[in-house]
Write a structure and sequence with these properties.
This protein is α/β, with parallel strands linked by helices. The protein has one domain: Alkaline Phosphatase, subunit A (3-Layer(aba) Sandwich), CATH 3.40.720.10. 34% of the residues lie in helices and 14% in strands. The strands form 2 sheets. Strands 1, 5, 6, 7, 8, 9, 10, 11 and 12 form a 9-stranded mixed β-sheet that branches. The chain has a 3-stranded antiparallel β-sheet with strand order 2-4-3, with no helix packed on it. Strand 3 and strand 4 form a beta hairpin. The longest helix has 25 residues, at 276-300.
């Protein structure tokens, strides 16, 4: 059967997704190599919408906090004190044990110069690791793949989603977006059957050859992921929602031995302009309970010390509440690291002085790219300056 490029592309949603896949894998039938995997991995949790850092890690002894948040400020019974002037939101109680064991790093006032308050632009800045004055079309994880992955597997960087974020897109190589391992495997298998992809690598059409090759490589990786997503070792109490499902999938892949370097998960719902308090507490509880369950499962198989979790959001919220009992887009925020091999345990730096604001917003103290540089160089043993395009101070985090 003759097949045109248009018909090939329109025949399956998977093919359009395949255009996001790597170009650097072995051809079908060969064994993948994993030169980039040194036994350490990074799990990234993106809190989409702009998490309210001040109601996550609370400066409860700063009178300005309650003055500027008369109804949003958390009362003492809604807090868990971790230092003399800092407390967790009590909704995150399930993380207290990790904190007590030295498996949490809290970095306050993280951001970048000249912050942008647009969701899309700020997320692009975080995912590309660019400055606000510059636009880059590749992501920092994608550039890691470009730099470090010469013979990597398709699943060296995995995103639990239907589409691939900029963070995982390199100039030459990309990560892989998979929302459901079993469904992804069935789609690749169906495509192979419909178009006999494996026998069409000798087409005279270079574009078709590339698409066939990508699908063959995708099928290989899809089978590996599907087989290793059925771990029977998981006993953690994950939240009964999409975020909990994604974290549980990542845990199953890790406990089954999948050698991915990066896992990327997004959780929406943090754009809390209206009636913030209860909604924010609920979603923070989901984050905390999920990470607690995840850490418990990884500890049982000896993989917690090989794993670092980074939790970030594209920006924080304004210090003062708005007229709708919510908060509007702000600037600096809090970032979390979790893991069994952290070098800077507990609270890394002081919370902001709320008497010193920039037009109602927090003033950033630490550039987020210093966290990236630390994780790339010290944890993954990669060339952080090449990947980030310039030198950033390393923080000795791991």
């Amino acid at each position: 059967m003759k097949i045109t490029r248009r018909k090939f592309i329109s025949s399956s949603a998977l093919v359009s997704a395949s255009l996001l896949l790597p170009r650097f894998l072995s051809v079908a039938g060969q064994r993948f190599a994993a030169s980039s995997f040194n036994g350490r991995r990074l799990v990234i949790i993106q809190l989409s919408g702009g998490n309210d850092g001040l109601n996550t890690i609370v400066p409860f002894e700063d009178d300005n906090y309650y003055r500027l948040r008369p109804s949003l400020g958390l009362a003492s019974e809604e807090l868990i004190r971790i230092q003399d002037n800092i407390a967790w939101n009590a909704s995150m109680q399930s993380l207290q044990e990790l904190y007590d064991q030295g498996e949490v790093t809290i970095i306050n006032n993280i951001g970048y110069p000249n912050p942008d308050l647009s969701h899309f632009r700020s997320m692009d800045i975080w995912q590309s690791a660019s400055g606000s004055e510059k636009t880059i079309n590749s992501g920092w994880i994608g550039r890691y793949l470009d730099s470090q992955c010469h013979n990597c597997k398709a699943h060296a960087a995995l995103e639990l989603d239907d589409t691939l974020s900029m963070a995982l897109k390199g100039d030459e190589k990309n990560g892989l977006a998979v929302s459901d391992p079993t469904r992804f495997y069935k789609l690749t298998k169906k495509l192979f059957k419909e178009h006999s992809v494996a026998t069409r690598f000798n087409s005279t059409n270079d574009a078709l050859n590339y698409l066939y090759k990508v699908m063959a490589e995708s099928a290989q990786s899809a089978e590996v992921i599907m087989e290793q997503s059925k771990s029977e070792l998981l006993t953690g109490n994950y939240p009964q929602n999409g975020f909990g499902h994604d974290l549980k999938t990542v845990a199953s892949l890790i406990t089954s031995g999948l050698d991915s370097v990066f896992y990327y998960i997004s959780l929406p719902g943090f754009d809390t302009h209206v009636n913030q308090k209860n909604n924010h507490n609920r979603i923070l509880k989901s984050v905390a309970d999920g990470i607690a369950a995840f850490s418990s499962d990884l500890k049982k198989v000896g993989e917690w010390n090989n794993t670092v979790i980074m939790v970030f959001s594209e920006f924080g919220r304004r210090v003062g509440q708005n007229a709708s009992k919510g908060t509007d887009h702000g600037t600096a925020n809090v970032l979390f690291l979790f893991g069994g091999s952290l070098q800077k345990k507990g609270v890394f730096n002081p919370v902001a002085d709320l008497s010193k604001l920039d037009k109602g917003n927090l003033i950033y103290q630490i550039d987020f790219r210093s966290v990236y540089a630390s994780l790339l160089a010290d944890w993954l043993k990669a060339d952080d300056e090449k990947i980030l395009g310039m030198r950033f101070e390393k923080l000795g985090l791991v």
